[in-house]
Amino acid sequence: MPFERSQTQTLRLRLAESPKFMVVVAGPRQIGKSTMVRSVLATLSSSFVAVDQPPTSIDDPLNVASPMNSRFIPGAEPTTEWLVEQWMTARAKAKQLPTGKFHVLAIDEIQKIPRWSEVVKGLWDADRANNLNMHVVLLGSSPWLMQKGLTESLAGRFELIQMTHWSYTEMQEAFDFTLDEFIYFGGYPGAAQFIHDERRWRDYVRGSLIHPNIEKDILQMTRVDKPALLKLMFELGCSYSGQIISYTKLLGQLQDAGNTVTLAHYLGLLSQAGLLTGLEKYAGQKHRQRSSSPKLNVLNTGLMSALSDYSFTEAKADRSYWGRLVESTVGAHLCNSGSDDCAIQYWREGSDEVDFIITNSRKLIALEVKGSTKFAAPKGLSVFQGKYQDAKLLMVGEGNTTIAEFLSHPAQYWLEL
Length: 417
Known about the structure:
- The protein is an alpha/beta fold.
- It has two domains: 6-162, Rossmann fold, CATH 3.40.50.300; 168-416, no CATH class.
- Helix content is 45%, strand content 15%.
- The chain contains 18 helices and eleven strands.
- The protein has a five-stranded parallel beta sheet, sandwiched between helices.
- Helix 1 packs across helix 2 and helix 3 (80-95) runs parallel beside helix 4 (116-129).
- It is globular and about 70 Å long.
């Protein structure tokens, strides 16, 4: 039986109900959003249309459903007219179904259509007024889908299915990944088939994942005054993943870097795209957290490995580098699996440091990552607990909570123990 992510069943349940809300499937590029939706729609009356991939419908490969379709050719910019045409075609199919049966219209990369949210709002509201039995599923990259319409024009009209990078347990079950393979190659399902040909794997990650993420998603969807700086910021950030580094130090390593505000903004864009994030320092006071140096962490360790000079074997042999990969794996897992009620930060005071702080409104966890079998509780943990006596200490590494065990549970799990 093919592997299914947990969000697949959630989508099935939503589409089995009478249409009340649109369903939004959002998440980073190349994590299987379209594949999941197509698999669910395979047994339903449905139309799946991709904004950037004409023909306009898998049900109409020759574009003969309407004369208007002749205006939409491969490579053409998406338009609101195209969107209305697809919706009208799906409406016609929905009206032909018997009572109790629902047609599903799924639109992929919806955020690439100008003024999409205003058009969708009008069409959806008209369908509700006419009691049309048609589900609508919108797919797209999280930040721009959310920022350009959902929270304003479509507020109260959708339910979100948030998808993240694949976890260790998912990659293990779907592709038989070992723990070490997951730490190095990360959680990209499309790249999994190439891990035994590392040059091909590296070319795939760079050409099919990194380049489109930056060139098509970030640069085309938001204003970036210095595109070359954004790319350099990403590459440098990957090399520093797992480390705390000030914006001032980053400025010193980047040409034409502008100022620290520019770098912080670009790091925010990279984080929204599911590439690289900067964790804030835990300080109790919000203004101190915002002004702190970020701890850089890739959101998928495949990105870090693809841009490094280390092969899989070489990375494992270098204990220092492998330790940073392990720590970045833990950090990525925490960020990807954390809920809205779960903040992921770090802590440092003088020479004392704690790798990760997991907190919500009720509990506080200080987490240290160590790969050595001779694990000793670092000084930073005891110093942190001395300042925050309610904090729970969690040591992740061989001989304690193992890396594999830790990666098998979401961040919220450790707060609930």
